[in-house]
Amino acid sequence: MAKTTLLIDAHCVMCNGLARFLRKRTSREDELEIQGIQSDEGQELIATFPPRIQSMDTLYVVRNEKVHVRSAGAIRLLLCMKWYYAMWFPLAWLVPLPLRDAAYWGVSKVRHRFGRTDV
Fold first, then answer.
1. Structure pTM?
2. SS3 13
3. Over the stretch 43-64, which tens digit does the pLDDT of each residue have?
């Protein structure tokens, strides 16, 4: 099993673009597993999450058996990437959570304007 699992909206063009970006830049091939939230495997994994986050419209990052959502999940993805991306991880945590989540929220609200796919 991969060290980190990313669950994305498989129907979102922007989310699929993120998946392609990450696949090319992960430090090891077995470091990151990417699944669609709509997939059976994705739904089974989400069912194991705490109830308060199961219905969130966000990306989910499961790393070391902990679930991270919104900007915290996005920042955790840096740890899966090659060193020149991973080195930004500590600096990214210096940005206050309300600012990070506001930026994440802004992008997530317009992501479907880039298109949807029926995968």
1. 0.87
2. helix
3. 999 999 999 999 888 999 999 8
Q: Are 116 and 13 in contact (CB under 8 A)?
A: yes
Quote the Cα angle for 69-87-62, to 5°: 25
Ordered DSSP codes for 62-109? EETTEEEEHHHHHHHGGGGB-HHHHTTHHHHHTS-HHHHHHHHHHHHH
**DSSP string computed for 36-64:** ETTSHHHHHHHTTS-HHHHT-SS-EEEET
* Structure-token match 């091939």, residue found: 29
Sheet holding 60-63: strands in order across? 32-36, 4-8, 60-63, 66-69
